[in-house]
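HUMAN:
Just now I want nothing more than another pair of eyes on a protein record. I would be glad if you read both lines and explained how they fit together. I have put the entry right below:
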Amino acid sequence: MNNAWRTRLRGLAETKGFAQSLALALQPGDTVCLEGDLGVGKSVVARCIVQTLMADASLEVPSPTFSIVQPYESANSKYAISHFDLYRLFGADELEEVEFSDAIGRDICLIEWPDRAEELLPQDRILLEIEIASADERSICVSAPADFHRRLRRTIAAGSFLYRHWGSGTFRAPMSGDASARRYETVRHVGEDQRILMDAPAIDEASVSASALDYMKRANITRNVSAFISIDQLLRSHGFKAPQIFAEDQDQGFLLLEDLGSQGLLDEDRSPIEKRYETAARFLAHFHQSMLNRNEDTLNQSGIPAYDREAMLCELALYPDWFLPNNQSFDREAFVSGWQRLIAILWDDPPVIVLRDYHSPNILWQPEATGVVDQIGLIDFQDALLGPSTYDLASLIQDARIDIAPAMQEALVEAYLDETAKLSGTVNAEKFRRSLAISGAQRNTKILGGFVRLSKRDGKNQYLPRIPAIMTYLRQSLSHPVFDELRPIYETAFRQHDTGDASANA
């Protein structure tokens, strides 16, 4: 059943602010019905919703009164919008011509004069009833499912945070998110630099399952923004490019951040730019040497948890639990004991800060900068841990989102080793490659289980097409002699997966 909530908005600025918050709460498949007399502002609200989702404050949003529908699609294809105006609708056949039923439940649909198609509207629609309350006020009643009200309350709270810390008149637009519950917006003021809003609500431990909470604790997954703030300050204090924090509300989980730009390590075709990747590999050598040059006690006093055996084994359990849940022949005991031995090898060397997500989406190229360190911007490090120096290089060269050829992987390893030798004067390449193989295998093993978990538990299926590439990366790491004892366990599971054996159930 839909819940109703009413608000009064003074002037055009408040109306646009509310429309931005409403737009940022929408998801593909939502249907928004705008009701009210002529001249109450339905088109104003619809126009602002479209401009917000298209991230273009100057976008022309013509009224579809005569065409009935006006479609829009964002540059990254995250949003497809169908804006309907049914005021001049003469018959149901016209709705068929504009594929009204196809758009409902697929696109974000904005419908003015929705009563003309009442019988075709979904039960979970979002209804905006707009009235003129006074000469300078509009009254808007929002009737919608409870989940949408929850989303709307959050985006309104974000708008209030921005108003307190950056004043009125901001233009907000959505950014692509990640696999977490975090959400991001770009925020602009005319004549000022663009900033980034991070919306990272603290995990409500009472609202998650006991098993999920146990995993977060054992794998050292941060549950609020405090870790991001402390690690950001640590990185910046040592000369690394992390975003400046302009404002924070730790209780609500909002941060207003410096925008480090939109250039990354990939070209327009989403292919790796080799020179930038090489710089990213050499950057890690500087980053790790900076950590190793510090007293180990000082690093341990940073408060950053350890990427220890318990955390790694907890992550590795995702593989049998989710990727192979019904595989009765999987030798879990041998799998765990083998990995215990390998994890001990990783801890032969002093730990460094492991950023944990050092790959293409989280590395921003700084085109105006010079020098290896200054050209790399870091934006995703709230789950950083103290652990093996090989982990982040494995993340970089075996990127879960793109394919990096073996020859390029090797070139990046050589670049890292070369830069390390320049900085420290010595490097044990054989030992490093052994640890790199272990880190790569551990990471890709947990990713296989994690991607299936995202699909089955959270309904996020967009990562499933990457599973074959992750298996290729994993096979590359497993080819190292250090896996001679553990490799047969993987090979058995791989054969079942490759032949479509239902017991693998991936």
Observations:
- The two ends are 36 Å apart (CA to CA).
- Residues 501-506 have pLDDT under 50 and may be disordered.
